[in-house]
Design brief:
The structure holds 2 protein chains of 2 kinds.
Chain A: E1 2-13, E2 19-29, E3 33-37, H1 44-51, E4 57-66, E5 69-70, H2 76-81, E6 84-87, E7 94-98, H3 99-111, H4 117-131, E8 141-142, H5 148-162, E9 166-170, H6 178-195, E10 198-203, E11 216-221, E12 224-229, H7 232-240
Chain B: E1 2-6, E2 10-22, E3 26-39, E4 45-50, E5 55-63, E6 67-73, E7 78-85, E8 90-99, E9 105-114, E10 119-128, E11 135-145, E12 151-159, E13 164-173, H1 177-184, H2 190-203, H3 208-211
Helix pairs in contact in B: 1-2
The chains are: A alpha/beta, B mainly beta.
């Protein structure tokens, strides 16, 4: 069943009015892994933030349908509550707000009832063990004074706690050392298996695909998807780079 | 921490951790050795004298009323003030620190949340006496301006010595939109996101043992 459908999206930057996406289309089915690849500056992060309703980006045409519901103009909080989670490239830090406070607030909003503290801490304990982080982690300020690897693990901990049905990974490998990368990837695989979640991978390299095998890979260039195929496309990217997908340079049907 | 209701105009502390309450308009505190004070008083004029080699951690959490503080430090004194302001109307805070000897550490950190009808005038004056050396002075004043009311920050470093390490930072800012987006992207509603950020701003840097006494 179709989970996410983006139809003919046209997106403009609010500050300089530049068109960042045009005639952008994308489909993600339930329990599917879909990747969008593109060179630096191609607009990959714009997709993530537009999907979540960042006010810096304005949708001027098109639709975003999530589980048969038009969420194009929904606010960020409503989109998140419907089950979309963005694990961003450089997760923001917030001094003074602990991870625990933030999660309890998010969970109580989602469930519309007070958080069961015992169950909350038991689940946190299990996840921290899987991610190889101390349980005291949740008392730290959100991503503050954390290394790149700790920030990604902090975000992944939130995925497990908030149980989204669609996880968007924006350059998930950035800032991760070899060991942390392996832990994060295995945990994402486990999450996908347990929750039958869909994953949208936004990346400029194919390293992530060693763990998360995409069902579909899309190439982004010139504000739109210019090629779409199974994971064999990854080899073409590795061999020929993104220049091979420039419109007019190569027969995309090939 | 021991709770003390101060009725006199002068009180001395020596190796103590105390919560002070007082209804007097004026209070003079003498500090020896290591002292931690959580000030919950309504004192409007507070004078602190720190003996040689003494350390004072002074906390004032969510202060609602105006106050003038004067701190006089002798050599090797270590003064650290952590203050948050949550006024309901016009609030004026003035902190004057006097570094009278050598090898003194002096840190003043003030955060104010301007919401509802609050507005602030915050003045911090660090005085460094002539012919002193090896002194360190840090002043930090931040206002989170939610209501758009007038807020004024005056950070002064009045240095008569030729040798001192002095830093100051002052800012008046609105809530960071990226922080709002981040919290909303976790499914937290806009109003709750703002509340979390405001509360986090005002309590950031206060140790647990202090917050437990509030």
């Amino acid at each position: 069943m179709l989970m996410l459908e983006i139809k003919n999206l046209k997106v403009q930057a609010v500050d300089n009015k530049q068109i960042l996406l045009n005639e952008f289309n994308l489909e993600i089915k339930d329990d599917q892994i879909v990747a969008i690849m593109g060179k630096n500056g191609a607009g990959k992060s714009t997709i993530c933030k537009t999907l979540l309703g960042d006010a810096s980006y304005k949708i001027i045409e098109g639709q975003i349908i999530f589980n048969n519901e038009d969420i194009t103009q929904e606010t960020t909080d409503k989109k998140a509550l419907k089950g979309i989670y963005l694990l961003s490239q450089n997760p923001l830090s917030i001094k003074g707000v602990s991870l625990s406070e933030m999660l309890r607030m998010a969970i109580s909003t989602k469930t519309n009832k007070a958080v069961d503290i015992l169950a909350f801490h038991k689940k946190i304990k299990d996840i921290c063990k899987k991610l190889e982080i101390p349980q005291s982690f949740i008392h730290r300020d959100v991503n503050y004074n954390m290394s790149g690897g700790e920030r990604k693990k902090s975000e992944l901990l939130q995925v497990w706690m908030l149980e989204p049905s669609l996880v968007i990974l924006d350059e998930i490998d950035s800032g991760l050392d070899v060991d942390s990368f392996k832990i994060v990837m295995n945990s994402l695989l486990e999450y996908k298996k347990e929750y039958k979640a869909s994953i949208l991978i936004i990346t400029h390299n194919t390293k992530v695909f060693d763990y998360l095998k995409p069902d579909v890979i899309n190439i982004l260039d010139n504000q739109k998807i210019v090629a779409s195929a199974d994971d064999s496309l990854a080899k073409l990217v590795d061999d020929q780079g993104f220049e091979a997908f420039k419109i007019g340079k190569k027969d995309l049907d090939e | 921490m021991n709770k003390i209701i101060v009725e006199n105009d002068v009180i001395s502390f020596d190796n103590e951790e105390v919560v002070i309450e007082s209804k007097n308009p004026f209070l003079k505190i003498e500090v020896k050795n290591n002292v931690v004070i959580l000030d919950k008083s309504n004192v409007s004029n507070l004078e602190i004298t720190m003996a040689k080699d003494s350390t004072l951690k002074y906390y004032n959490y969510q202060a609602k009323y105006s106050k003038n503080i004067v701190v006089k430090m002798q050599s090797k004194a270590n003064f650290k003030a952590k203050i948050s302001l949550l006024g309901k109307q016009d609030v004026s805070w003035k902190v004057d620190t006097y570094m009278l000897g050598n090898n003194i550490k002096n840190e003043v950190d003030i955060k104010a949340l301007s919401k509802d009808d609050a507005s602030y005038k915050i003045e911090v004056n660090g005085h460094v006496k002539k012919n002193t050396k090896n002194n360190l002075m840090n002043e930090s004043i931040q206002v989170l301006n939610v209501n758009g009311n007038k807020c004024e920050i005056i950070p002064n470093m009045l240095v008569s010595s030729k040798e001192v390490m002095a830093n100051h930072a002052a800012s008046i800012a609105h809530i960071n939109e990226n922080e709002i987006f981040y919290l909303q992207s976790k499914g937290i509603l806009l109003q709750d996101a703002k509340k979390l950020i405001e509360e986090g701003f005002i309590k950031e840097g206060f140790e647990d043992k202090i917050l437990q006494n509030i």
